[in-house]
Structure prediction request, 577 residues.
Amino acid sequence: MKGGWNWFWKGGSILLLAYVIVRGFSTPLQPGLVSATPSQLTIAGQSVILTAVGQPFAETEDLPEAFEVVLRSGDQLIQTEVLEVSPHSVKISVNIPPSMPSRALDAYLFTPASGTLFLGNACFVEEAAKGDVPPAFIAGAPLPKAPELGFSFPYQPNIMESIRNLLWHVPMWFAMFFIMGLGFVASLAQLRTDSIQWDMRAEAAVKTGLVFGLLGLATGSLWARWTWGAWWVSDPQLNGALVTVLLYSGYLILRAAMGDDDRVGRLAAVYNVFAFVMLVILLMVLPRYTESLHPGKDGNPGFNSYDLDNSLRAVFYPAVIGWGALCYWMYTLRLRMNRCTHHLLSR
Amino acid sequence: MRAVFQTLTTAGTVARLEWQLEWRQGHQLAAVGLFAVASVYVAFQASDQHTGAAAWTAMLWLVHLFSGFTAIGRLFDRERSNVRRYLQWTASPLGLILGKLFHAVLTTTALTAVVLGAFLLFLGWPQGIESPGKPGLLVLGAWLGGLSMTTTLVFVSAVASQVRSGSGALAAVLGLPLLLPQLILATRLTRGALADEPWTMLVEYPLFLGALGAGTATIACILFPYIWRA
Prediction:
């Protein structure tokens, strides 16, 4: 029976991760507007090209009449005419009015299949006077069309295709918290019982957790390069993550320095308890009370609705379970190795 | 009630013992003071009184950090081994760690005064800073930053003292990553105090430093008995 259960959860973790990798990379990204050229407009009639990334929002045979673009200045809408449509861009002709509430214009693109695409501060009109848009230029609010996007990941400005990293980076840190928590419990038990069994569990947990911590740092660094433009920035969350990994490296150094001293278990357990308390303070308490670039922080615990929509959830939750189970599996292997070593050495 | 009283008595005795040890050995305290003042003088020579606020802060905390290591890093290695064994048999661990912590707090307070005083004497106020900023907050930040580093160092030094070979180097290796958060908070607070940033932006930093120091001291007190009787 026990063997059956092992097959179930180990096989399950592999299947879940296979699903996550395939689904995570094959799911298309919803289209999103990224730029308007030219972005500096003058008070005259002119044409502007809006460019999008992600899956195509139009077929090549689609007619321009099916699409609609309005520019928004403050709370007033300016009408435009759609000239050409291609899978990833749309060319419009717009007559810029001499006066408008705000010189920065937001763009809305209404598509029949992909819903509404939005680009904030798309264009800028330097010479526009402040005032209401003259009635001749005003557009009526278009009727929103129900999108038929299918299974696709949401478009987020700056993040774009890298949203797939959510399925790697975040579950890896979750797995690291989980296994370090296990190590913390094992160390507490070690302090109570002074048994080498618990010490071996704590050591296996910390070693496995460190692997996932390093993977979390690596995937986070890649993500930072894409969204923030640097491999590493000074941020409470990142500082906390780095210090945590250094702290647990200290655990291994302490063990190595103790050698075959018979107090190593107790001392390592003391250090591990301290390290886990610092982990909670550094990664879960401090970043929430200081300004941080990292999402889900800055007074906002965990994820919120804008980060996760249903299609992302359908892959994210399996990823969390899959990485967690894989992490636990690695921990059991390490633990078995520790037991074998102990057995051989004590013969 | 009686147990509490006994623990406090032990703490007082240990703190007095530490103080006497410090005073009789003499060279310990002098060594730390010399290290601090010499480092500040090196900083002064290197920068020739043209130091901006960022470099000033960096050098202040580097000197403070390594002076702290010199002073506290070997806190549990100083007694002769027979004194140590006597303490192990007679003193309650909680009283002992409280006494050591009390002594460390006093040392750090003196150290902060020496380091900050030497900085202001030699390097003066950093270049490019107009008003006197917030001198009270500067002193408070240096003191609280030093204290929250010290409580961590006491714990690390207690752990490292149990390792038979090379405990001094081990204290430094284990201690530096643990001190990073305190240093990040403290340098940010110092820069804010120098640049005269508004109180509302800075008020969280002394609170965090104080909380971090108190927190690490509490964990050290809870865990110390397991180290000491090991």
